[in-house]
Amino acid sequence: MVASSSSLKLQDLIQEIREAKTQAQEREVIQKECAHIRASFRDGDPLHRHRQLAKLLYVHLLGYPAHFGQMECLKLIASPRFTDKRVGYLGAMLLLDERQDAHLLITNSIKTDLSQGIQAVQGLALCTLSATGSAEMCRDLATEVEKLLLQPSAYVRKKAVLTAVHMIRKVPELSDIFLPPCAQLLHEHHHGILLGTITLITELCERSPAALKHFRKMVPQLVHILRTLVTTGYSKEHSISGVSDPFLQVQILRLLRILGRNHEESSETMNDLLAQVATNTDTSRNAGNAVLFETVLTIMDIRSAAGLRVLAVNILGRFLLNTDRNIRYVALTSLLRLVQSDHSAVQRHRPTVVECLREPDGSLSRRALELSLALVNSSNVQAMIQELQGFLESCPPDLQADCASGILLAAERFAPTKRWHIDTTLRVLTTAGTHVRDDAVASLTQLIGGAQELHAYSVRRLYSALAEDLSQQPLVQAATWCIGEYGDLLLEGSCEETEPLQVEEEEVLALLERVLQSHMSLPATRGYALTALVKLSTRLRGDNNRIRQVVSIYRSCLDVELQQRAVEYNTLFQKYDHVRAAILEKIPLVERGGSQVDEEAKESKETAQLSEAAPVPTEPQASKLLDLLDLLDGPSGDAQHPRPLDPTPGSALIHLLNLPCAPPPPAPIPNLKVFEREGLQLDLSFVRPPGTPTLLLITVTATNTSGGDVTHFICQAAVPKSFQLQLQAPSGDTVPAQGGLPMTQLLRILNPKKAPLRLKLRLTYNHFGQSVQEIFEVNNLPVEAWQ
Question: What is the CA radius of gyration of the chain?
Answer without folding.
Answer: 38
